[in-house]
Amino acid sequence: MAEQKKTKILNYINVFRGLAILLIVAGHSMQFGEAGSFAQRLSVEVFAGGTALFIFISGFLFQHLSGKYEYKNYMKKKWTNVVQPYLWTAIPGILFCFLFPIRYGNAFDGLNPLLQIPMMLSVGRVHNTPAWFIPMIILFFFSSYALLKAEAKGILYKLLPLLFIITIVFPRQDVDYNSVMGLSYTAKYLAYLKYVLFGYVHFFSMYVFGMYCSAHKEIIDKFYNSRWLYIIIMLVLAGINLFSPYTNGTVSKIFLTIIVLAYLKHYDEWLIAHTRLNKVLDVIAKYSFGIFFVHWYLFFLYNLAFGLPNVMPVVHNYALTFLLVFVRFTAVSALSMFVLWAVKTILLKINPETNTRSFIGV
Fold first, then answer.
1. Residue 334 buriedness (CB in 10 A; 0-12 / 13-18 / 19+)
2. What distance in Å separates the CA atoms of residue 234 and residue 23, rounded to the nearest whole number?
3. Global pTM?
């Protein structure tokens, strides 16, 4: 739809993608403190919310590569590179749901398995907690043509203020095994489906903001010039989220996105010059989608092996607790990359022509 074809992935966006997946893993593995305590709310504010960054990057890359956009081919590639690995990597989660229904939090336990599987796959959150992102991002795929049409007509970015207001006014409402207990299977399914649809509406601003920053890359330098203002705003909003009844973790992440993007672009040449560091970050970025698919399984197995809950209670003191969750984060991240590497190696040994990306996202 755009005249100029843009195919090169920018280094600073590639690095950003790797950092974003690490934040997502941290958001799941580094939460600690008793439910509702200041420590727990603080760990959520600091570590959770990486989804907002991931969606921003998705929108940025969509616009950046839109020069070669053609709806049918676009959807075909998304089927191969997003939906297929989602289906393949869903297998361990579905097995966990059947083998450990209570510990794993299978809200559909007791229902006919032939009904459970499509219900799980269509909402994601039951069999693989972070995977609700896939049904949601599919909605963005279906919206792609309309988004580029609105951009071409000069309408899309004028809507950003309204979209940000929607994000602010309608914070995410969590749904999990405990919150749907006692409901009928239909009501449980609708609650999870609502979570996906609400996520689409809530994060629409971040996707369009990503497109805007891609279309107007010069603004990223202006972000860097005003970086201290954005840092202050982010800290103030984080404080409001911590100390007031209003909670919306995405709002502070809007400004975290701006800050990280600004710094990465500003120091892009420095990163490229430091080839060893940049190579490590590039590997993490290339494995990022695969890490997204499998890290919850490794997180579950790690907790199962050590008898740990998802949210770590404070053990003796905060320093020790932080060390324990950091070790868990490091282990889950490293194990995720190792498992992906091992599976990729095996698939290529079986058939060197295998498109491993369509199986594991790498």
1. exposed
2. 16
3. 0.94
The answer to whether the beta carbons of residues 258 and 223 sit under 8 Å apart is yes
C-alpha span between 131 and 293 (Å, rounded): 7
Q: Token digits for 80?
A: 């191969």
How many residues make up the chain in this entry?
362
Contacts of 258 (CB under 8 A, 6+ apart): 223, 230
Report CA Rg, the chain: 20
Q: Are 115 and 188 in contact (CB under 8 A)?
A: no
With 0-12 / 13-18 / 19 or more C-beta atoms within 10 angstroms meaning exposed / middle / buried, residue 271 is middle
Name residue, tokens 């989220």. Answer: 241
> Residue 218 is encoded by which pair of tokens?
């010069």
Structure tokens of 217? 């890359």
Q: Are 292 and 18 in contact (CB under 8 A)?
A: no
Residues forming a β-bridge with 32: 312
Got the DSSP string for 200-213? HHHTHHHHHHHHHH
Alpha helix (H) ranges present in 124-267? Answer: 133-152, 160-169, 177-180, 185-202, 204-215, 218-225, 227-243, 249-266
Contact 6, 12 (CB under 8 A): no
Each of the 362 residues of the chain gets a pLDDT tens digit; together they read: 444 444 578 999 999 999 999 999 999 999 999 888 888 999 999 999 899 999 999 999 999 999 889 999 999 999 999 999 999 999 999 999 999 999 999 999 999 999 999 999 999 999 999 999 999 999 999 999 999 999 999 999 999 999 999 999 988 888 888 889 889 999 999 999 999 999 999 999 999 999 999 999 999 999 999 999 999 999 999 999 888 888 888 999 999 999 999 999 999 999 999 999 999 999 999 999 999 999 999 999 999 999 999 999 998 889 999 999 999 999 999 999 999 999 999 999 999 999 999 999 99
Answer whether 291's CB lies under 8 Å from 336's CB.
yes
How far is Cα 310 from Cα 316, in angstroms, rounded to an integer? 18
Q: What is the Cα–Cα distance from 20 to 257, expressed in whole angstroms?
A: 9
Closest CA to 329 of 298, 285, 293, 362: 298
